[in-house]
């Protein structure tokens, strides 16, 4: 029976033009990952539910797509439990697998499971889709790719330096100039909470601070008051709102503010090391900026935090982020494996490149030449040439049917194929090919050798 | 709480070495697809259930992974239905989405949904994972990649010719010589059923014939008898079991056998056209063979059928297959769109290349040079060089920690990194680098320019 076909909300079909552009971005990222010594791994699309559940908070648990057990999945469900008709209680009884929600937890699972085959420090990258049952909206999908690079097994700050360079390398290679790599350190945030006497409100404090961009200084202070942070504490924070100027000026201010906090000063030193090293080595097109209001994923990160902002003329928000975490694999029983990693926001980078017209013209899935089909004998003559051109790596096609020439030319036109070859009885006799440049309409009779040379 | 991590049965983690080899195969296939004018599309991992259900038979429906609806999925389930506790009846009420089972049905859905954006004939390729709740066994997985190329919108036999050449191109590029492309035609099978007077038993007849390899001539005849095919009919079949010799000899025998069947003769002519054209154009390393016992997926194909056998010395069975289907998109309401396509069996091709040692040595995710870390200042000196080498596309790493040299050298060894650079105080003063070739142990003091040249 005929159905009007559609796809689930929040998912997408990608046309040839889109796939080719997406691959251009992913291939650029992969090339840079490889040059920096990262190695690819891949993990299954679904994991055992207990690998994923409880790792992303209650909200995360809700957003994980669960896979129904195969076969008679109700057979083993206890009657008493079944009769409660409670979705939450029934779920673990009828579903044992779930689609991955991100690449980080599967990576942690991978490291623990394969720890005896891995040479640490382990630099891995992973580019695969993830799934979230989020409410779809502009730029937010239920299936999307994540592009992650992480190093586990070393606490060295050279890795943070390397990740800043890696961001710069990727965006420079994509010709996306003027991105800002914002950096902060979780230890600085802890230090600030400490010196204002609100260590126990660290999370409330940073969640509020993180909103500075959106709600402004007064809004942040209001939210802090609502969360019970004292006036005295907020007053002590005042210098933070004025942090500006060069990296040295910001570092000086932070040193002054955090002089009494050991952890705070440690954070400042880490930031200082990264900033000074990067300023010596130099970046190609990106800027590195200290941003003390950057908080992202606080319950997760323990050291450096990164977030990449698109060039200012594009209103896009973050196109990448990451940071240092000290105990990722602990959830799977392997303690004291420090890690640091970054990720690239493929969908947003795509939109930015599209908006700024930065996809190279050569990025297309296009056929170079279409041979027009004049009938069986002519097609045979053409096919032999097509076959030889393909062996040289030239993208060539024979129109499959001997239909009207207008239709065949129209097909070449619509598909933006730059050349057509017309070869009928005359050409066959002379062993030539009439090569037509579609844009100019110019036609030349050429030998196969000339044809090949022109199309190379 | 620590869990001993594992992955669902039938799924796999891929290590860096495996990912790189898999990518080598997929990139080779993609390159050939592109050269032949095929364009990539991608479809979502899950489809609406009604897009997939009922398209693969009852067995297929059972093997499709269903995704549990999000949230309180039982809320809208009717109490009476719920109280039946019937898995089969409950499933459509609590699951609206399912993981794709193959790439063909999603492709048909794509063509119908996007018919107004597509220029026909549409040559598309698609390389994505599919999922089947099959019982896992050696070489059979619950998640695996399919690599498909199809053309829809033309009945031209030039496309069959092209697909034979495409198989040859891919396997030649993979250096896998001696594959056999077996070809048959559904019309020949129909013709045979007709001339032996058993048209209504076409499926039983071909299912039995398809087993010739496994159960031999007597076995096939026995099965035919069991299915009620008459002795007279089986007698008429006798010449089929003796089909051998060259393509011309096989064609002559078929013409003789099928002379009274219009559809049978049409099939013979189609096969003859493809065979004669291919023999004129020539294949690089593959052989094309007529195999009248080839039946695969009879309910689906309507013209040419292909199956590719690995070289005889490898016991592997089919590493690819495909054929012509006349009404793929009809299930979604778009009639009379003929298509033909082939697919490559990635996992089996991987095993064949591994067994024959055909993966090129250059196929590795390897770092070219590791800079040894002697401390902060030395690391800074090294990092500047690493940074410059990477900009030249040379895969370079700095060991992140200034640990014992033995440990760092051991890391380079285990990871098969061919070169290390030792740069301490002396080298820094002389602005040189000591480059060590790990295999020979040979060391040279070189300038940066020399270093770069040696590593390029």
TrEMBL record, chains A, B:
GO cellular component, one term: cytoplasm
Keywords in alphabetical order: Aminoacyl-tRNA synthetase, ATP-binding, Cytoplasm, Ligase, Nucleotide-binding, Protein biosynthesis
One of the protein's GO biological processes: histidyl-tRNA aminoacylation
Aminoacyl-transfer RNA synthetases class-II family profile domain segment(s): 1-400
Domain of life of the organism encoding this protein: Bacteria
Subcellular location: Cytoplasm
Top-level class of the enzyme under EC nomenclature: ligase
CDD domains with a match to the protein in the record: HisRS-like_core, HisRS_anticodon
Enzyme nomenclature, EC number: 6.1.1.21
Binding site residues for L-histidine: 102-104, 132, 146, 150, 296, 300-301
Stored Pfam families: HGTP_anticodon, tRNA-synt_His
InterPro entries reported for this sequence: aa-tRNA-synth_II, aa-tRNA-synth_II/BPL/LPL, Anticodon-bd, Anticodon-bd_dom_sf, His-tRNA-ligase, HisRS-like_core, HisRS/HisZ, HisRS_anticodon
GO-annotated molecular function: ATP binding; histidine-tRNA ligase activity
Catalytic activity: tRNA(His) + L-histidine + ATP = L-histidyl-tRNA(His) + AMP + diphosphate + H(+)
Family: Belongs to the class-II aminoacyl-tRNA synthetase family.
Summary of subunit composition and partner proteins: Homodimer.
Protein name, entry field: Histidine--tRNA ligase
Gene for this chain: hisS
């Amino acid at each position: 029976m005929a159905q009007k076909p559609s796809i689930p909300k929040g998912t997408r079909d990608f046309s040839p033009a889109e796939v080719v552009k997406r691959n251009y971005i992913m291939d650029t990222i992969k090339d840079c990952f490889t040059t920096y010594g990262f190695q690819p791994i891949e993990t299954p699309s679904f994991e055992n539910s207990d690998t994923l559940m409880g790792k992303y908070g209650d909200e995360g648990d809700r957003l994980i797509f669960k896979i129904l057990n195969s076969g008679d999945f109700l057979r083993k469900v206890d009657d008493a439990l079944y009769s409660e008709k409670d979705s939450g209680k029934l779920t673990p009884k009828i579903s044992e697998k779930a689609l991955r929600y991100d690449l980080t937890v599967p990576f942690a699972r991978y490291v623990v499971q394969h720890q005896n085959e891995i040479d640490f420090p382990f630099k891995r990258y992973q580019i695969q889709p993830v799934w979230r049952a989020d409410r779809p909206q502009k730029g937010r999908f239920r299936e999307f790719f994540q592009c992650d690079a992480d190093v586990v097994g070393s606490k060295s700050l050279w890795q943070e330096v390397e990740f800043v360079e890696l961001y710069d390398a990727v965006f420079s290679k994509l010709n996306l100039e003027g991105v800002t790599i914002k950096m902060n350190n979780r230890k600085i945030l802890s230090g600030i909470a400490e010196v204002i006497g609100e260590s126990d409100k660290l999370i409330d404090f940073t969640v509020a601070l993180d909103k500075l961009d959106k709600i402004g200084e007064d809004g942040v202070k209001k939210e802090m008051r609502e969360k019970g942070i004292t006036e005295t504490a907020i007053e002590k924070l005042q210098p933070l709102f004025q942090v500006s100027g060069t990296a040295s000026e910001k570092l000086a201010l932070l040193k002054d503010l955090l002089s009494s906090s050991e952890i705070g000063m440690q954070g400042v030193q880490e930031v200082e090391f990264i900033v000074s090293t990067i300023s010596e080595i130099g970046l190609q097109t990106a800027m590195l900026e200290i941003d003390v209001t950057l908080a992202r994923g606080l319950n997760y990160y323990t050291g450096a935090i990164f977030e990449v902002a698109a060039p200012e003329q594009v209103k896009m928000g973050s196109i990448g982020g990451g940071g240092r975490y000290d105990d990722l694999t602990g959830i799977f029983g392997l303690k004291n494996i420090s890690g640091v990693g970054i990720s690239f926001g493929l969908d947003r980078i795509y939109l930015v490149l599209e908006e700024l017209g930065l996809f190279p013209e050569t990025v297309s899935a296009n056929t170079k030449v279409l041979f027009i089909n004049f009938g069986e004998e002519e097609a045979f003559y053409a096919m032999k040439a097509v076959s030889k051109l393909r062996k040289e790596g030239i993208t060539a096609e024979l129109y499959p049917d001997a239909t009207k020439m207008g239709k065949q030319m129209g097909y070449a036109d619509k598909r933006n194929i730059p050349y057509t070859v017309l070869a009928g009885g005359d050409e066959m006799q002379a062993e030539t090919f009439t090569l037509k440049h579609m844009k100019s309409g110019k036609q030349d009779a050429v030998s196969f050798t000339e044809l090949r040379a022109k199309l190379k």
